[in-house]
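A student in our group prepared the protein record below, which I am reviewing. I have pasted the whole thing underneath without changing anything:
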Amino acid sequence: MFKVSLLTSAHLEVLLSLCVDTSEPSVDVLNLAHGAQRNFRKAEDLVLSVVFFNITCVPQTNPSPVWTWSCRSDRCEKQLVVEGETAQALDACKLLCGEYRVLWPKPTGVVQLGTSIAIISQHAITAELSRSGRELSPKVAELFRGATKLFRDNVVGLGKGIGPIRSVGRSLLIEATITDTETASFKSNTDESYRLEISETTNGRINSSIVAATFFGFRHALETLLQLTIYNDVTQELQILDKALITDSPVFPHRVDYMRLALKGMPLCSLVYNAPICAGILLDTARNFISVESIKRTLNGMAASKLNTFHWHITDSHSFPFEVESYPQLTQYGAYTTSKVFTPADIRTVVEYARVRGVRVVPEFDAPAHVGEGWQWAGPNVTVCVKAEPWTSYCVEPPCGQLNPTNGTVYEILGEIYKEMFKLFDSDIFHMGGDEVNFNCWNSTEEIVTWLSNKGLGRQEEDFLELWDEFQTKALIKVEEANGGASLPIVLWTSGLTGKGHVEKYLDKERYIIQIWTTGSDELIGELVNKGYRIIVSNYDALYFDCGFGAWVGEGNNWCSPYIGWQKVYMNSPYDIVTNLGVNLTSDVRAQILGSEATLWTEQVDDSSVDGRLWPRSSAMAERLWSNPAESWREAEYRMLHHRERLVQRGVQPESLEPLWCLQNHGYCYL
């Protein structure tokens, strides 16, 4: 029986650590202690009560393992435990086996990994700034605290669902030096490099030294450190590699997850705007609504895979879930239900949740096509062809809808939408969509045809391109006004404006970045690069993760089948795509190829299936864009299987790639 008159977190930790070695506190005591901690949290250091704890140490009865794993030829081989031998856990073997162990993506610089591991205590993980470094700004300091707390939570979570964590172990000190103490927002020129060193001090402490140019590099170093930490299910201990030296930075700085909810590649990059290369995910949240909780899981996967930009395709012709305070009618008319709406508070939550995980959120407002639901209140002819039939004559998929470029109300509403987006999304780039405009829709609208006639234009393709250019010019002015009068990089999808032979007539290469959604063999890619345009590659034959399922209009398979396996995603190199089209890969050309985005359009996806469509395939793209490995997917397969399990541990629900037997028997699942 223990009597405590001063109840603090420190006391509770001592009480809960009384049972060591082969015993753990009983469930009743754990519940009592945690409940008491909650009750006294608000006045933690005041003498409030006398609390009695009756601690019963319950011996663990785990049977002795019959299997062990040992590293041979860079593989962990499964063997029966012989008498007198101590079994080694599979994760402990993997932490000591192979050049890159279980790191994902693999580092691009120096990689020196030790050959032994140390036990650490979950109650003795601390992080502090180096005494030689400068004081962080308040915002960066807040991010530092958030990222280190997330690290500790993830370390403790390593044993979740597997077994208890013994309380004994060494302390782990993370000592950080962050050179840029002011940058708290990810920008296109943000330095993500880091140096990580793990060592053992003379007093037995494990020390992790991190040197990074920015908070975002520091966060990546924490992720690497976390991947060098395991829960040993044989000894029920937290263990870490006790010696390591890693220097690392991405090959493609723009690494994006675009959920359309579309998931695309990285942050957008630009020579003119001094931006880095890109990699990320695009997520479409309009065709089917995707909840904030699901978006958070996507961001957790991105953090684990070192993707840095979440491209949010937030509205479309199907629904308008983005709440615009200036025009609440947009969601009143356009949201599927009152609960399927993204409020300003929701968006701020997503942006900050992403930021502490090293991810920038880039908004896309797709126009002049892909609009419809939500605009019905705006007046006659603001939108045209909404729900027009037969839909095959007016759009690529139902429901149809486009903005009317000749109607001044269009630009008034767009201006307010843009203003609120810039207020909520902390991004230095903006995606204006601009794909799949249907000229037959405009050609069937009397007001538009009359406008063309008054301008001395006809009704041919080149005339409608002039009309589209009119829209893009006016909409861009509204974007710049929303951005306080400042210009910024603008992204557009490949479309009629970017067509063969006339892209330079409509789009300034110094201003626009072109996102490729056609196949990787499209000759237009080579033309755009040769003309000096910067590109982001989202070729649908490798990076459209909605492909390969049953049709949702008609029967058979959907339009972009077949299904795309992680192996093809891994081998989809933006550099190879360009060189295969005959482009000479000079240093200038490399700078124009900003990276890739994986995309998820959600016609057939919702909260129940979004994780499996995105993961772990987005992680395959992440290593391609971070490391651009010369090796094939075969050399990465075993690390990929482990990383998939890591995503599960982080709360993501990725698709299973192979039977678990393959993970436990490295090298036997081949063809």
Q: What stands out?
A: The first helix runs from residue 9 to 16.
